[in-house]
Design goal:
The complex is a heterodimer. Chain A is 69% helix and 1% strand. By secondary structure, chain A is mainly alpha-helical. Chain A folds into 3 domains: 63 residues, no CATH class; 105 residues, no CATH class; 221 residues, MetI-like fold (Orthogonal Bundle), CATH 1.10.3720.10. A two-stranded antiparallel ribbon of chain A has the order 1-2. In chain A, a hairpin with a 5-residue loop joins strand 1 and strand 2. In chain A, helix 6 crosses helix 7, helix 10 runs antiparallel to helix 17 and helix 19 runs antiparallel to helix 20. The two termini of chain A are 54 Å apart. By secondary structure, chain B is mainly α. Chain B folds into 2 domains: 52 residues, no CATH class; 205 residues, Orthogonal Bundle (MetI-like fold), CATH 1.10.3720. In chain B, helix 3 packs across helix 12, helix 4 packs across helix 11 and helix 5 crosses helix 7. At the A-B interface, helix 1, helix 10, helix 11, helix 12 and helix 14 of A face helix 1, helix 4, helix 5, helix 6 and helix 7 of B.
Chain lengths: 422, 283
């Protein structure tokens, strides 16, 4: 349907098939929207299933607390009536005696005891000992019998622990991860001084990440400036020296630092040869915080240089020239005219390096020794060695929260769309 | 960077100390990678330069550690695993990532920032957390300690790199080309393969190489998710560094450095080609 030239169209403008143009356009837009979404959908589904779901599962695990709730349901039900003072009455003792014996038969007792032991040490032995003896007991009263087996059964604290740990969902792992615990009276307080670990580790993680970010900025700023001001054929050549480490395996670079920094390594040999230190004065530069700092700075340096370089590349030299011709000294011109223009690159680089270093695992694990370990190493420890998976999940969740806040900030300042590689 | 003639001695000193500082930083970046190459030819089982090596005596050098790799079935076995996992993970990541990037580059996509944030997250979340989450979840569904599980895990870790590089290539893409193609009667599939694909191919290949190296170098997820049967080269290296440290590791590291150099060169050449294709200035 065409409109004759010269005659004004009456009513809404129509498309070729007779529908109003607006409707037709909206339909076309919707089709395009759907098509764009259909293209993204496979990857979105893939990432959701293979990546996001596992992470959500881990978050859930940090509050999930099924072991005691599953094995002592009657006891916990009875304890609901208990007011938390003194000891519960005979029904609770009878219930727990029966359920612990059942748990032993189902081979679940070890799990229950371990879970309770994470909270109050000594619970494992108490439960093991009690179950061995009450099995022979045919009838009550169980209260007296249990207290006779071990006086601790008369403690209010034991029962309040069982009641608390019996909740199917719990925040105790987060308390543990923050060096806190629930006191016997139900209030939340700090762990005793000698059992506070994680606060210190979190602080150390932040401190090491800050130092690494600072060192990277210090080293990267002049180098990026040089790369951005050199003619292309030189800067391209030098750029290779930045990109090669970027492409080289992390393990390879960590290995090289071990080779360089160990007691009989290249750097110490060089120092002895030059005469700065004696043969027996070799410096311990690795398996401590120094090793972590040096290796991480080198490994993360390209992540600082690349965003700085791409920002500096766009700064026109005429601003500096203008400042100079208006009478500014070189230093003044640089600080007041050039540096403010690089703020975006500094922000991007610092955030990126900080995000990457806060979750670093491999390098601290291999060269960190005792003083250079970070929070990731403790997560790995609880995953692989102590098998306290819920605590690992809680520590991981706290770390994840920190990273996501930084990521959000990065997105605000830089925008993920502007993230570039290589 | 030549100095203008009016710069005084103080400026000159400042300039040269700046250059020296930069030189030291470049040394700091590159020396650790280069130093292991000669050390991997050490005839002695040491991690440092022997006097013979410094005097360039030929019998101080040997290729025994390279022979060690080839003759050790564990290294050969893990090399095979590494290649299988990396190739399949790269294929999955590249196909899914490229298709998604095509969708992301269209202005009509709803909730674009949120979608982009989700797709990039595997790159942002610390590896230890990804590995822990995957360990719990993949164990539940029976994928832990299997090759498919490891391949899926590595594929998802590689996708952000493909999405980022391909989206970057599509930024300068002239959409009138696809419209012209459709106008001339080609369907969407034909338009993609004949018009879009050749133009974004450099980006796709670089993204794929990024995904490949991500998988090939990855050790944390392997550490948690793989059993002995799925050992890869980095896992083997990890064990070597922690348990019995021997120059064989330096030989492996040297080979890995050579692979990195080859990949870096390819990506750089592709980047220049892509910029030329899209009519941007070279370099």
């Amino acid at each position: 349907m065409t409109v004759d030239a010269g005659t004004a169209p009456s009513g809404p403008i129509l498309a070729a098939d007779g529908t109003p143009l607006k409707v037709s356009l909206r339909k076309a837009q919707r089709v395009r929207k759907l098509r764009a979404f259909a293209l993204v959908l496979p990857l979105l589904a893939f990432v959701l299933i293979t990546f996001i779901l596992p992470i959500v599962d881990m978050l859930f695990r940090s509050v999930d607390n099924p072991v005691v709730a599953r094995n002592l349901p009657i006891t916990l039900n009875v304890l609901k009536e208990w007011d938390g003072t003194g000891t519960p009455d005979e029904t609770a003792y009878a219930a727990i005696a029966k359920e612990l014996v059942e748990a032993r038969e189902n081979k679940e007792m070890g799990k229950v005891a371990t879970r309770l032991n994470f909270e109050t040490s000594g619970m494992r032995s108490l439960i093991g000992k009690s179950v061995r003896k009450i099995r022979r007991l045919k009838e009550g009263p169980y209260k007296e019998a249990l207290i006779k087996i071990d006086k601790r059964w008369a403690n209010t604290e034991i029962w309040s622990t069982i009641k608390r740990i019996g909740a199917p969902y719990t925040h105790v792992q987060y308390l543990a991860a923050l060096d806190m615990k629930t006191q016997p009276d139900g209030s939340v307080g700090m762990q005793p001084e000698d059992r506070q670990i994680y606060g210190q580790i979190f602080m150390r993680t932040l401190w090491i990440s800050l130092l690494v970010t600072g060192f990277c900025l210090l080293l990267a700023y002049p180098v990026s400036y040089l790369l951005a001001t050199l003619p292309l054929r030189y800067s391209n050549l030098l750029m290779v020296m930045v990109l090669l480490p970027f492409w080289t395996s992390l393990l390879v670079r960590t290995t090289s630092w071990i080779v360089l920094l160990q007691r009989n390594g290249v750097v110490n040999d060089l120092l002895v040869w030059v005469g700065i230190v004696g043969e027996d004065g070799r410096i311990q530069m690795i398996y401590n915080q120094t090793g972590t700092l040096v290796a991480m700075t080198q490994i993360l340096l390209p992540f600082m240089i690349l965003p700085l370089y791409s920002v500096m590349k766009t700064i026109s030299p005429s601003y500096m020239r203008a400042a100079r011709s208006l009478g500014a000294k070189p230093a003044t011109a640089f600080v007041r005219v050039y540096m403010p223009q690089t703020a975006a690159g500094v922000g991007a680089g610092c955030l990126l390096v900080f995000i990457l270093s806060i979750g670093y695992y491999i390098t601290p694990a291999l060269v960190g020794g005792q003083s250079g370990t970070m929070i990731s190493n403790f997560i790995a420890y609880h995953m692989k060695s102590s098998l306290n998976w819920s605590l690992a999940a809680a520590l991981g969740t706290i770390l994840l929260a920190a990273v996501l806040v930084l990521y959000w900030l990065y997105n605000k300042i830089v925008g993920i769309d502007n993230m570039k590689l290589g | 960077m030549a100095l203008p003639p009016y710069v005084g001695p103080a400026g000159r000193a400042w300039h040269y100390s700046f250059l020296i500082f930069c030189g030291l930083v470049f040394l700091f970046l590159i020396a650790p990678i280069l130093v292991i190459i000669p050390l991997s030819f050490n005839a002695e089982p040491y991690f440092t330069f022997t006097e013979g090596m410094l005097a360039f005596e030929s019998d101080a050098y040997s290729t025994r550690w390279y022979a060690d790799i080839v003759n050790n079935p564990q290294w050969v076995f893990s090399a095979g695993n590494s290649v299988i996992v990396a190739v399949f993970a790269t294929l999955i990541a590249t196909v899914l990532g490229t298709v998604a990037a095509l969708g992301l580059s269209q202005a009509h996509l709803p909730y674009k920032p949120a979608v982009m944030g989700l797709l990039i997250s595997p790159m942002i979340v610390p590896l230890i957390i990804s590995a822990a989450g995957m360990f719990f979840f993949y164990s539940k569904i029976g994928l832990a300690q299997t090759m498919p599980g490891l391949i899926l895990a590595h594929a998802v870790l590689g996708t952000p790199f493909v999405v980022i590089t391909v989206t970057a290539t599509l930024v300068g893409f002239d959409h009138s080309l696809t419209r012209a193609s459709e106008n001339l009667g080609a369907g969407p599939t034909r338009t993609f393969f004949k018009i879009q694909m050749p133009l974004i191919l450099p980006g796709v290949v670089s993204g794929g190489l990024f995904a490949f190296i991500t998988s090939f170098d990855e050790v944390v997820v392997v550490f948690f998710l793989a059993g002995f049967e799925q050992r890869t080269i980095p896992r083997q290296m990890w064990a070597g560094i922690r348990e019995q440290i021997s120059p064989t590791i330096l030989a492996v590291a040297t080979i890995l450095v050579c692979i990195s150099i080859a990949l870096l060169t390819t990506v750089e050449l592709l980047r220049r080609r892509s910029e030329r294709l899209r009519g941007m200035s070279p370099g």
